[in-house]
Design goal:
Length: about 350
Amino acid sequence: MNNSNEEYIGKQLVANLFNSKGVFVLPAMTLLSAEHIRLISQHKIALEEKDVIHLDGAAFFQIAIDDCTTAMESIFEQIRYNKSKRIPMIELRNEVIPFIHQVTEKNDFYGILAALQSKDDYTYRHNVAVGILSTLLGKWLKMKPEDLSQLTIAATLHDIGKIMVPAEILTKPGPLSEEEFQIMKKHTTYGYEMVRDTVGTNHNQALVALQHHERMDGSGYPFGVLGHRITDFSKIVAICDIFHAMTSDRFYRKASPLYEVLTQMEESVYGKLDPYICRVFIDKLMQSMIGNEVELTDGRTGRIVMILSHDPLRPLVNLGEDFLDLSKQRNIGIVRVIPQ
């Protein structure tokens, strides 16, 4: 294999690619994955700089996440029209998972978050988003590489059971009736069965589809189990699922501001979400806000300069000549982070 091509992973092809015999290999504008590079090398093609476009972070995130979303839609469609309801794992492993790993390697949380904002494809983009966010969180929790790979697949498939839920319930523009909600809740058991029955997955991954709506205090569904019976994978995916749902525009409500979402999640730590995993998530997200402008409840604006590990949502803020420690000034809070 020609390893010199590997430096082009994550770059975009300028034009249609043909081998020396004129056989068509890949179309123009393909975002190159490790799988594409293997294919190119099998055709004994040596790429050159003129063959590719170097994308900046924002463009790379947008194209990679859009491509993954399109691939997820294709995977859902294949399952929908396949009587056996088997998940096409080869397509998932080739067209979605490599890009999720590439995106998370860049560790630019806000760049990633901007590209995850759904257009009119929330159902598919949400699966990719939860795959990316769960992989980031798994890295922050210092998971072993083999566990992290399993988590990425489990998180990307967490909502696969929604294929079995009628589209008019999934895309309803208002709140669900009690009867509709009972049908919606079945996506967890459908998903469990589908992942369990797919060759190349394991029980831990199937449990994520089943348990991602379970809560530590037993208030979740489908079985209302308590925290000690919820797997770590499921606890991670639950946090990322909630976070992406709350920070996205949906059919029936607008996205909530990021800081407000984190505040609500911190309140959910008491009972609903795993406290340790949620703390790590909030802490890392706040760390990535250092240097951002924020608007305070008293109308002033300042810049976050330090996150305090004992109270990550109440950082040290620079206001001109002054520094305000929000962990000590409990009567003042952050209204919102001002986009850069």
